[in-house]
Amino acid sequence: MKKLLALTASLTTLPAWAHEGHGLFGSHWHATDALGFVVVGALVAVAVWLSKK
Question: Cα–Cα distance between 34 and 40 in angstroms, integer?
């Protein structure tokens, strides 16, 4: 029953779309957008560093 409830709760968020303008190049951005770019950059840097070993 808990799995069914979790599945139902997660499926209800599928039609949720954010408003336009997200990201650093949009009309505005949120701190979480910038944090995502920082995390992706850090992951790329770590991957490059580990590939050289």
Answer: 10
Cα(44)–Cα(50) distance, integer angstroms: 10
Does residue 51 surpass a pLDDT of 70?
yes
Question: Over the stretch 13-27, which tens digit does the pLDDT of each residue have?
Answer: 665 556 665 555 666
**Quick one: tokens of 21?**
């303008």
> Residue-wise over 17-35: b if at least 16 C-beta within 10 A, else e?
eeeeeeeeeeeeeeeeeee
